[in-house]
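Q: I have 109 residues here and want to know how they pack in 3D. Can you give me a structure?
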Amino acid sequence: MIQMSRSIPPQVPAIVHQGVRYEQVMNGIRQGLPHRNGYLSATDIASGQRLWTAQVYEVQYDAALEKDVQDVYFKQMALTPDQQQLSIENEAGKRFLVNLSSHAVTPAP
């Protein structure tokens, strides 16, 4: 019998706004980033070119445990009412705001 070490990450749909697709990076290591998760990418829809990537949060791994059971993925993502930021909540219940112009990340209240 095969057992999974963690449940499947939440399915958080990409958000398209003003010609840009914003989505969670599912495996940053495969894309040349220093960590596996906690990243948001912005891609130009017309060209398919990645515009930028922001680290929303860093996952602290315990070396004594398997990394995949410690991964923390996005749980929810939405545009703020003013459409200037993305509000992101991760599986640990932490919330963040990502400014779409500056790419700055701040903890959400």
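Q: Anything worth noting?
A: The longest helix spans residues 67-70. Strands lie at 15-17, 20-25, 39-44, 50-55, 74-79, 85-90, 95-99, 105-107.
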